[in-house]
Design a protein that fits this description.
It is built from 13 helices and no strands. The chain has one domain. By secondary structure, it is mostly helical. The longest helix has 26 residues.
Length: 319
Amino acid sequence: MTRAFRPNPAPAGGALVPPAPAAAAASPPDAPRGVAYAFGAYLIWGLMPLYMKAVAEMSPIEIVAHRVIWSIPIAGVVLVLLKRTADLKVALRSPRTLMLGALTAALIATNWSIYVYAIEVNHAVDAALGYYINPLLNVLLGAVFLKERFNRAQIAALGLAVIGVGILTVHNGGLPWISLALALSFGSYGFLRKTLPIGPAQGFMLEVLLLLPVAIGLIIYYAVTGEGHFGFASGHFGVNTALLMLAGPFTAAPLILYSNGAKLLRFSTIGLMQYLTPTMVFLIALFVFHEPFTLVELVAFGFIWGGLAIYTTALLRKR
C-alpha cells in the first residue's frame, strides 16, 4: 500500500481535525507532553456521550448549530495566538478552497448530527462500532479512490470486519446504518480534508464559518417555532443555555489538544491511542446507559476487534 492515504486517528463525534502527519523514517521518540495532549483529546471525545445525554431532549440539528456558533470564538482566539489569521484570509479568497471547505463542512456536520442522534436514541454501542470500523473503511477508500493495493493483513482485517457487520445485519434484520453512516461520513471527510490546502486550526475555522449562516438560520427557526432551547425560548433559561454554550468548548478544546499532540507523537502512537475513544464510548453505553448487548453482538464485535488487531499489528511492524 502506498503512503498517499492515512487512516484518520481522530473520532468523528467530537472531532474536526485532519489526519495526523505520517512519521518520518527515523521518527523521534514520543514527547510526554504530546502523549498528555493526545490523551486529553481522546478522553474528552470519549466522555462526549455524557454531554450528549444531558442535551438529549434537544434536536440533534439544534445541538450541531450551537456547536458551530460557540466554536467560532474559541477558534478565533487560537488563530490569533498562532498568528495564522492571514492563512484564513487567503483561503476565503480562493474559490477552490471555499468549495472544498463547504464540502468537508457539510460532511462533518452530517457526521455530528448522526452521532448526536445515535446517543439520543440509545445507540451509543452503534456509535462506538462506527469508530472501530473507521480505520478499516479508510483503507478501503484508499483502494477505491487512490488505487492503492491491499496487503495480506489489510485483506484479512477487512474480511473479519465484513463478517462482523454481516452478523449484525442478520441479527438486526438490516444493516447497522448508524455505524456505517458515521464511519462513511467521517472517512469521506478525512479523505477530502487532506486535499484542503490549509492547516488544522485554519481549516476548522473555515468550516465553521461556512456553516455559520445555516446555523444562525436554524437557531432562528427553532426560536420562532417555539422548539428552541436557547435563551428565553426555553423554560429553563440557565441550564439549557449553559449546556448549549458548552458545545463550543467540547468541540474546539479536543481539537486544540489533538493538533498539538499529533505534532509531538509518532504516527504509530496516535494510531494506537485512537481506540481509546470508541472503547470509552462502548463502556459508557454498557455500564452507564445500560444499552442491551447480546451474545450475537459480542461475537460480531469480536470479529471486528480481531480485524483491528491484525491491522494495527501490521501497521506497527511496518513502522
